Amino acid sequence: MPTHRQPNHHASAGERPGIDQAEASLVEHYPRLVRLAYLTLPPSLGRHRRVLTAHAIVQRVLPGPRKGDQLSRVPGQRGATGSAYAWVRGQVLRAALAYEQPSRRWRARVGALRPTLPLVVGLRLFPRAGGSEELALDQALSSVAAPVRAALALRLLEGLPDYIVWGLLDEAGVNDVAAALRTAGQLASERGGQARKLLGTAEFDPCTVQTRPTDLLRRRQRARITGAAVAITLAGLVAAVALPDHSTARRPAGADVADAGPAGGMALSRALDPALLERASRDEWANASRIDFSVWPARGDRIDDTALLRRALRVWGSPGRAVQVSASAGTSEVPPAQPPRLLYAGEVDGTAVVLLHDGQRVVRYAEPESGDGAPALDFARTDGAEVTTAAAVVVSRSRGRARYLLAPWIAASATRDLLAPRTPAQGLDFSEEGVTDPVEGPAPGDGCTAWPVMQLRSSEKIVERHSFLVADLGDLAPAHLTYAAPAGPGTPAHQPGEAVGGPALLSWARTACSLRTLRGSGVRAVNNWAFAEQRLPDSGGRSTWVCTRADTWRGPGRILVQFQQPANSPAAQGTVVAEAGDTASCGRFGPHILAGTRWKSPSGKWFLLAAGDRDVTRMTADGSVRAGVSATTMAVPAPREGAVTLSARLSGGDILQAAG
What we know:
With about 650 residues, the protein is an alpha+beta fold. About 25% of the residues lie in helices and about 25% in strands.
């Protein structure tokens, strides 16, 4: 590595920008800058001081007005803020590095005066604790010098190449840049190369924090003030403290929706007031044009238990260390921005349960009635829910079984085993309040001998003869299961429908065990699309190609493609031939798929099989097999091994590559 390389102006501090440009860049990238400062600051400061110092550093880096600067309230254009951001980042880096430099003269040279604002009295602030991997990384960062932490943050979070990081650290006055980069490289390669992901978690996010009082006696005397400050996102709290009067109206990304200061405290206090909980009437759902959680009435024998509701809201606002907190993938755990809706409050299996909904999430609070054990707080994202995806919520899990609170529009419920498609559904009783009898869950471990699901029927007040399936995949809201039958070439594609008919149940019987890989991933709906049927050579019978697509509440979807050859058992699982994550394939916005596999015929011959959706006009194989057919399926003799590349041309002329 060279001893020095001059960085380009987009990465270095560069020339000081105008104040409007610097401020626009600071506001736009505020969370990035604060996280960089937090990671660079010495852990010996403690998490509380490090959080405040990181925010103070970022807020104090704005340059003073220069002659000719226009102190306008309009931020600089985006095209001008690239170099401005580089300058601001350089100033933040210099100030944060100064905290581990023993020389007062060195600190003065880089202008890193100790910040005095923001100031928080009576509360301790710290990011939410992560898991064991985050803790291990935090301990590793505590054992290295500030330049190493800064180099790691610049490489992994800012995405800068080493030569630019070299220049930034050199400009900031670091003596041994090469050693810092070497050590940062070692840290980045440890823990399975997951350092980038871990640094992006809440453990290292000083913009979303938890709070604790420093004096419990004072907390009792000032309970209302402390309650108003619980769990405020710090970016929103401090952004107004040090920014100059000419700052723009834009708020830092990631700031809480409540305003800072007294207004924010009042908003949070209102949101956590049990007297202000929203409650729908019993029959509101029957007269609404929108059928989702917003029309669920408040049910349960403890909906008027103010003490229970207050405890649930207080824990939501600031869960203590003893509270068991869980959240489905992609679900925020921040306090509500306004009074949430009460869905349920009652006792289930010896546990007091409260279900709340804030328009984006369902939140479950549970505390043991016996007084033994810690309370639990569970979050699940449910934005955009409708008749089927807002049909049930888990209220209790115990010994592999779950009870559900059903939507008020559910007229009948039953259970069935996906692996037994020809066995009739068994009735499932539920109480007047909508709580079901216990439902067995999928068998734990690697075995897949049964997969119970619920079959629900909507009230005819909203839709006629509408039954559908939902499956428990480990989250509060069960996933909606659907099915799309194959369509021939030139015919319209079949849209996903309810998976309650014979063909749909037979398809799910051969696919059900693949649901194990989706547990706990925040899945909203899963569709089985039988995109092709194929007559196999050598009298091998008729096979089906199925693309199983799981859509998550947060947006991304994943697919798994199976080749289902003839089998004696209706529950014989297909062969997985491809899978992909973060893809639009097999969905509404990516209605195409191509997949292939090698197959041994009954006579012992090997073939390359391939299939595409109805829009495929020609398929081509290259590599160890070279072939082409103008059809949606292909079966050609092939060696048992050897790389093959599959592609297809669609009717519109686009080229489609094989999945996976």
